[in-house]
Structure prediction request, 591 residues.
Amino acid sequence: MASPPSTSSTPSSLPFGQILAYGAPSLASVAIAIVMGIHLPIFYSDTVLVPLGAIALVKAVVRASDALTDLPIGWLSDRTRTRWGRRRPWIAVGAPFAAVSFWALFSPPADLEGLAAISWLAITYALFYIGHTAYIIPHYGLGAELTNDHHERTRIFGWREAFVIVGTLIAALAPAVLEEILGSTRAAFAGFATAAAILLVVLYWNLVRVVPERSDYLMRPTNPLVPGIRRCLRNPVFRLVLIAHTVHAITAGIPPIMTPYFLKYVVQPGDFSFWFAAFLAAYFGTAFLTLPLWIRLARIRGKRFAWIASIVPGILALFALFFMGPGDVIPAALIFGLAGTGFGPAIFITQSILADVIDYDELHTGHRREAQYTAFWSFLQKFTVIPSASIPLAILASAGFVPNVPQSETVQLVIRSIYSIAPAVIALITILIAWRYPLTQAVHEAIREGVTHHENGLPASDPLTGRVIPPPGDAEHEETGWFLDHFSQRELGWLAARGPLPVQASALASALGSIFVCSLGSVMALKSLGGVEQAPGVGAVLWIVAAGFGLSAAVYHGIRLIASRRLPSEGGSAERIRRHVQAVRHTWHEE
Prediction:
């Protein structure tokens, strides 16, 4: 394949072929993700005969480990320099790696059993997520940098979301259809895995062939990992959007886990398989049909308005579903359709918003770090979702749930409450946070104008604070400034007043504390697990998450500890450190 030319500028309206080539891979990617989330457990428990406890343990550990790779992959993608660009080499390699792993995961040898079956699941599952992270983080990062136009970004992510919805619907229905045609569960999933794997590679390689990267971004300076994370979190608009996104993810694992239980044991349709497919069709069908309306609304009323408005149908539907009972099949299906109208924009609008937030970072830092931002975004979401995908089942079990029999009124109430009330309350909190989002179209245009001023060596004004921002590198030496951002403002105060020893001690204490949290989480998780026949309880899942966070923090503070040893030679004078602290506080209005 010949490399498509890179471009140093971008039109306000991208060629439609490039938009389709960018969005189309999401059809295969999300179809694979849905099958992994919904069908994997029952396939391995009922067909491959892996104990349910082992499946749950593998899922929790691999997904926690998967979250740890997001930040390094994002950082490496931002630093990659090839004639293909920063993103496309990762996509070109990661997609086939994930595709082969996915095919192997759903095509296990028929004679596998016991420890061998568990090992096959663990290895292929872990390998898949390595490849998945390698292509999905650069894919998201590429979308944020295709254009600087405020509304064109909504159009790009909107079309990608259309492919997401179609892929989700295909994945929800295809396994059952293939099983009916091919006659066995193994053949159905092997066939689906083969088709999805081929489609994933073809669509992502077509993206690599058709969608160019911007050469001006390729030549931008890179940044160290830890200072890059610190500067991401220093961005107040990113913190706001990140909090809203993370809060919304608290209950994101509930719908795929609880929908079958809600339909089967609360609504109780006569033909569960048929109505399950019908409900999914109602949900994703309305999501697809209303997508153009949301794109238009975001253009007319702004992204914040569309973001908040897209959450409202889900809240109304969730509260309505709480009052559904046996036989309420048609009303429940209509409510599912209402809920589906808010599915697409809640995802693509936040992606478009994140791209604008990254522009605000560029105004302050002079760096383009799309993949690092999207990696941090994905990192927190993954850890947040893990408990919501496990805790509801533990609550059901403690309430007296017994499979394949009519449930008591208490159990039905628990199912309705988990499925509707909890996500609705979280959605309301998300709206309260999102209401403060400040980057209107006018503000974003001012940010882009400021970036242009900096490129021409002129100072610019922050449209949110009114403060004057000198061109990056004018007020302080860039390399030293990025190095100092390995450390907090308080640590830099100690450095200026008392030298490097207090900072080194702080970094060491933080690294040791993180190792302790990781070790404690690992030990407590093992103690809480029980045998492989028993699904891990709430405590075990939370300890696994704590261990993952501890490991992430240990790596983070370990890098800071290594950097602290270079302070005597690279930290600069006390006056230089004070100027850096003052510049940070002035720039981000942190006095």
User: Anything to note?
Assistant: Confidence is low (pLDDT under 50) at residues 1-9. Strands lie at 460-461, 468-469. The longest strand covers residues 460-461.
